[in-house]
Design goal:
67% of the residues lie in helices and 2% in strands. The chain is mainly α. The N and C termini lie far apart (40 Å). It is built from eleven helices and two strands, in the order ααααββααααααα. The chain is globular, with a radius of gyration of 19 Å.
């Protein structure tokens, strides 16, 4: 394989693996938007907070990895539920912009808390579940077992969500979103549905944070604007999914990951900000020609 072909292959493999994290974030964003019409800017901080909690439990308190992992997810879910009760629910009759600002405030508060509690250690490293890695045959792309675990979690999460939204509980979420008054009349608690939705979204964010943290050193705001930087790519993936399609969010996350990596090719090294240019250029083209998203199957409900 030629040098350019191999480089392109490495970029695609790397982009797909990084896209798994974007897809997990995008799934949470789409889930909340479908259920409540809210643009959740705290989604990435659910993941970062869960990562910090898992790090503290594992590194500072000496807990085992499985227990620390579950603890991090529990903290992320608790943050999601508190966000719904203390911010989203009180603002339920406000404009979408007001609720959006409220979720952004939650993210900023979480980042401030992270700086406060971990100010003595500005750069942290979360141990990997497995340190092994290998090279993809022919392409030569390096792949770690940690990345494969993230891919496996994304597959399981996608299948689980597809099954869930065909179940009675999943149908109640759709009913509460489309006709909240009618849903209340037939005995569906819109408040409980909202809590369930935010808890699930926070769980997805927690998985994204805890699984991607070991791949990089991390600081406060890791998934929002730190080394992880998954919030904006996650929103881009959600836009590609029309903010409604769960399979589209997964496809969008993987696509965003690959497009972003195109900016790392050697021919692009002389162009400042090539990765961001590719990403925003691609999104602009999509919005111009397919403003409703490119991964929105006709009649898709999950």
């Amino acid at each position: 394989m030629s040098g350019l072909g191999q480089e392109l292959g490495v970029a695609i493999v790397t982009g797909l693996l990084q896209g798994c994290v974007y897809a997990l974030v995008a799934l949470g964003i789409v889930l909340v938007f479908r259920a409540s019409g809210v643009f959740n800017f705290a989604q990435a901080e659910f993941g970062t907070t869960g990562l910090f909690a898992a790090y503290a439990a594992l590194t500072l308190w000496g807990w085992s990895y499985p227990v620390a992992f579950v603890f991090g997810l529990a903290v992320a879910v608790a943050m999601g539920l508190l966000t719904e009760r203390l911010v989203v629910h009180p603002l339920r009759n406000s404009s979408r912009v007001t609720v959006l600002v409220g979720t952004a405030g939650v993210a900023l508060a979480a980042i401030g808390l992270q700086f406060w509690q971990f100010n003595d250690t500005l750069i942290m490293t979360m141990p990997r579940i497995n340190d092994a890695f290998f090279l993809v045959p022919v392409l030569g792309a390096p792949v770690t077992v940690q990345q494969l675990i993230t891919l496996g979690v994304l597959v399981v999460a996608s299948i689980s969500l597809a099954i869930f939204f065909k179940s009675p509980s999943g149908l109640t979420i759709q009913a509460a979103q489309q006709e909240p008054t009618a849903a209340e009349l037939v005995g569906i608690s819109v408040r409980r549905v909202s809590m369930l939705t935010w808890g699930m979204a926070a769980l997805l964010g927690g998985l994204a944070g805890i699984l991607s943290g070991p791949n990089l050193t991390f600081t406060a705001g890791f998934l929002s604007f730190g080394a992880g930087r998954a919030l904006l790519p996650g929103f881009m993936a959600a836009v590609l999914a029309g903010m409604r399609s769960m399979p589209g969010a997964v496809a969008g996350g993987l696509t965003v990951g690959v497009v972003e990596q195109m900016g790392t090719l050697s021919m692009m090294l002389e162009i400042p900000g090539a990765r961001a240019m590719f990403l925003f250029g691609f999104l602009l083209i999509v919005l111009l020609f397919k403003p409703n998203g490119i991964f929105v199957p006709k009649g898709a409900t999950a």
